[in-house]
Structure formats: C-alpha cells, structure tokens
Amino acid sequence: MFTEEEVATAVVDEAFRLHKDLGPGLLESVYSTLLAHRLIKRGLAVEREKQVVFEYDGLRFDQGLRVDLLVEGRVVVELKSVEQLHPSAFKQTLTYLRLMNLRIGLLINFGAPLFKQGVRRIVN
C-alpha cells in the first residue's frame, strides 16, 4: 500500500522523465497514455478517464466529469498540454478533489518549456 505522498512523488518523477525524454507540446492523450503506462510499470494502480460521480441535493450526477488519471484511488492527476494554463484548470482540479473527497491533486502541463513551470500540487 502506497501513501499519498509516495504516489504523488512517483507521478511527478515519471512525468518529469516523460517531459525530459519527449519534450513539451505533444498531444495530452500521448502524455496520458505514456504516464499511465509508466506508473503501472512502477506497480501503481491507475484508472484513466475516471468518471466523477457525486450527489447533490438528492440528485446523482454521473456523466460529463472525468479525471485524466486517478492513481491508487488517492491522487487525482489532471494533464494539459498548452502554452499557458487557464485559471479554470486549477479550479477544475480542486473541484474534482472536493467532489471525490480526496486530498491531493497534481495539475501537470506538458506544454510548459520547463517541467517545473508546468507542475502544480493542489491540496483539498
């Protein structure tokens, strides 16, 4: 069983390697597929395009919201591949964390020239 911190560290490590090896600017789907593959090789459970299900005011919502990756059922990973992150990306990731009652999310923009400019840790 991995802790949230171990999972988050593994995601950042593998995302850094991908960015270093492939560079910025490929399609988000490429990074998503490869990052999931690398995390699985490390022994982590990864769900891609995980549906976000929640209830509000007696209504159940189970369509339209999906996180890019859910790692070990504990860490939300939202991926982008854009020149500049829109502020809504932060809000989207935080909202997913709240709706799923999770604590740690990573917003990773593979479009950033340097990896450290494109990775953000978001805590609920």
Q: Give the terminus-to-terminus CA distance.
A: 22 Å
Number of strands: 7
Annotation field: number of helices: 4
Spell the H/E element sequence: HHEEEEEHEHE
Q: Poorly predicted ranges (pLDDT <50, ≥5 residues)?
A: none
Fraction of residues in helix: 40-55%
Describe this structure in words.
The chain is built from 4 helices and 7 strands, in the order ααβββββαβαβ. The longest helix has 19 residues, at 4-22. A hairpin with a 2-residue loop joins strand 2 (54-56) and strand 3. Helix content is 41%, strand content 28%. It is α+β, with helices and mostly antiparallel strands. It has one domain (4-123). The chain has a 5-stranded mixed beta sheet, with helices on both faces. The chain has a two-stranded antiparallel ribbon with strand order 2-3. The protein has helices at residues 4-22, 28-41, 87-100, 115-118, and strands spanning 46-51, 54-56, 59-61, 66-71, 75-80, 104-109, 119-123. Helix 1 (4-22) packs across helix 2 (28-41).
Explain the layout of strands and helices:
Elements: H1 4-22, H2 28-41, E1 46-51, E2 54-56, E3 59-61, E4 66-71, E5 75-80, H3 87-100, E6 104-109, H4 115-118, E7 119-123
Parallel strand pairs: 5-6
Antiparallel strand pairs: 1-4, 2-3, 4-5, 6-7
Helix pairs in contact: 1-2
Summarize this, please?
The chain has 124 residues and is an alpha+beta fold. Helix content is 41%, strand content 28%.
What attributes does this structure have?
7 strands, alpha+beta, 28% strand, two-stranded antiparallel ribbon, five-stranded mixed sheet, single chain
